[in-house]
Amino acid sequence: MAEDKFGGQQILYLPDGATRLLGRDAQRTNIAVGVAVANAVKSALGPKGMDKMLVSDLGDITITNDGATILQEMNVEHPVAKIMVDIAKTQDKEAGDGTTTVVVLAGELLRGAGELLEQGVHPTTIIKGYKIAAEKSAEFLTHISKEIDPKDDAILQKIAMVSMGSKNIGDDKTKEYLSKLVINAVKQVMDKDPRGKIIIDHDLIKIEKKVGGSIADTQFISGVLIDKEIAHPGMPKSIKSAKIALLDVALEIEKTETDAKIEITSPEQMQAFLRQEEQMLKDMVEKIKNSKANIIITQKGIDDVAQHFLAKAGIIAVRRVKKSDMEKLSKATSGKIVTSLDDLNEEDLGFAGMVEEKKIAGEQMVFVEDCKNPKSVSIFIRGGTQHVVDEAERSLTDVIGAISSVVEDNKYVLGGGATEVDLAIELRKYSNDIGGREQLAIQKFADALEIIPKTLSESAGMDAIDTLVQLRNKHRTADGNTYGVDIYKNIIGDMQKLGVFEPIRVKKQAIYSASEASEIILRIDDMISSKSKGGGGMPPGGMPPGMD
Predict the structure, then answer these.
(1) For the packed helices 23-42 and 79-94, what is the interaxial angle rounded to 10 degrees?
(2) Which residues pair with 222 in a beta bridge?
(3) Do residue 26 and residue 109 come from a single domain?
(4) How far is CA 495 from CA 316, 369, 504, in A?
(5) Number of domains within the chain
(6) What string of H, E and C letters represents the secondary structure of 354-422?
(7) Quick one: DSSP state of residue 543?
(8) What is the pLDDT of residues 498-514, one digit of tens each?
(9) What average pLDDT score do residues 375-396 get?
(10) Which residues lie closer than 8 Å to 391 by C-beta, 6 or more apart?
(11) Contact 488, 78 (CB under 8 A)
């Protein structure tokens, strides 16, 4: 029961069973939770990071080392843990990669803040110092970044390989093959806004997956893959030089909106009624034939009789296709989605070099491929088990995000912890120019950034302290600022020569998100949990129920 004292009198203002954590207790608990969440994903960082097996309450198994996926599947309860999940989600949406990095960095910032709080530094002073450090880091990142030509496939390939490096999806040859698929896909859907800036809509790259074969069987489709079958067995199974009508129309007899009664008194009337329905469906098919379309793909249904007439005319029909797939088909084939058959003409049709139904893993799928300059494409993932194809999908999604970020921003920085060590040295120099206690927070921010090279070296089986000392010494030399952790040789190496590159957006977003999350958590000095309907207040460790 929460209480306060007023003039020596006890005043109760929360119900029985309510719990409250005040001041330093609340701060200690929140920091401990934040650090614990970071520790849970820390070992998954980098190419030699370990995987996590997550089992849901239904028994579904997920094996991954993707930070955002781990946190989502963990089903955390504590509100501070939920903030850590949110920053991983934000990182995923904004940069497409670096989800583990942002959580590990946030945890280290909280750990540093906890040490300063114990020394008597006020939370607002720490927050101010962290804000200054984050801004200075972003400024310095821009200064040390390198520009990239979007046509430079060699550098894009290296960025893709770094993004894919931590994923357990085959050998280097397979990863190289997959990264080329992604680069092709991103370049194909690349567009420019009215100001001439490159923009990439990730939704236009459709990722479809089916268990079977191996990861090396994954293919790029210059068009759209539809997880549907051809509507009628009498229709052709493939057509070259396809003219595609994209319809948002049902090839069925529409039912009346109000209840209607039709009175039929003789068999002849019944026959005439059925003939009339048949003629209406025949007229619909005639309109499609007149447009010169040899394939129709519709969002709605197709009557059995209409299917028969279409099959007789040698037209392929695919029905009940998702709206999102229809939009992708429109972008890929340059066809218009038509909402009335009366408006359908040859100019509205889309084109594909080949439309074919194939049996994949026992299921029929329709491939719409070889489109002319498609603005929507597909990547079809194969793999030996469901866990493999799921992890491959997560990996390719990350690579799409990384390549898109670097193409849109036109800038990249060095990976392997080289950039973080550089930033840390710069922040320590800068902190000497800042008066007051804020410099202590800036120094802690610098220490937190170094968790990245430390964790990379730990996961490679190296001595983290020795590695960090070597990197600091190297970065203080004139030509040593390109050095980071070479995890494959278990030494420090030149990241520029090794081609370990990362998008600047991944680094910037991680720094801003981690900094803002730690600032939010540090502002909390009071946690109140009212008694839930099921009873019980704040559980041990300060986890309020009912706050998820």
Answers:
(1) 50
(2) none
(3) yes
(4) 53, 39, 15
(5) 3
(6) EEEEEEECCEEEEEEECCCCCCCEEEEEEECCHHHHHHHHHHHHHHHHHHHHHHHHCEEEECCCHHHHH
(7) -
(8) 989 999 999 999 999 99
(9) 90
(10) 63, 64, 66, 167, 168, 169
(11) no
β strands within 23-80, DSSP E: 52-55, 61-64
Beta-carbon contacts of 151 under 8 Å, excluding residues fewer than 6 positions away, are none
Instruction: State the Cα–Cα distance between residues 446 and 137, nearest whole angstrom.
Output: 9
Alpha helices in 145-221 (DSSP H): 153-165, 172-189
Both 229 and 349 in one domain: the answer is yes
Rounded distance between C-alpha atoms, residue 27 and residue 81, angstroms: 14
Residue 430, token pair as written in the block:
């800068």
Report yes or no: 113 and 437 within 8 Å, Cβ to Cβ: no
Q: Write down the residue that tokens 């994903």 correspond to.
A: 41
CA distances from 110 to 306, 317, 517 (A): 65, 58, 9
**CB count in 10 Å sphere of residue 211:** 17
Task: Tell me if 126 sits within 8 A of 441, measured CB to CB.
Answer: yes
Q: Letter for the amino acid at 147? A: E
Counted residue by residue, the chain has a size of: 548
| The pair of three-digit structure tokens given for residue 257, joined into one six-digit string | 């909106």
Q: Is the pLDDT of residue 235 over 70?
A: yes
**Judgement on whether residues 190 and 322 belong to the same structural domain of the protein:** no
Pick from 485, 475, 481, 501: nearest CA to 452? 485
8 phi-psi bin (left φ>0, alpha ψ -120 to 50, beta other): left
pLDDT digits (tens, 9 = 90+) for 506-536: 999 999 999 999 999 988 887 777 655 444 4
Rg (CA), the chain: 30
How far apart, in whole angstroms, are the C-alpha atoms of residue 54 and residue 64? 8
* pTM for this entry: 0.80
Domain containing 174: what range? Answer: 150-222+374-409
> Are 355 and 248 in the same domain?
yes
- Same domain, yes or no, for 323 and 230? yes
Q: Which of 94, 299, 101, 100 is nearest to 202 (CA)?
A: 94
Beta carbons of 123 and 28 less than 8 angstroms apart: no
Q: 231 with 335, same domain?
A: yes
Question: What positions carry a catalytic annotation?
Answer: 66, 99-100, 398
| Average pLDDT value over all residues in the chain | 85
CATH of the domain at 305: 3.50.7.10
Question: For residue 367, is it within any domain?
Answer: yes
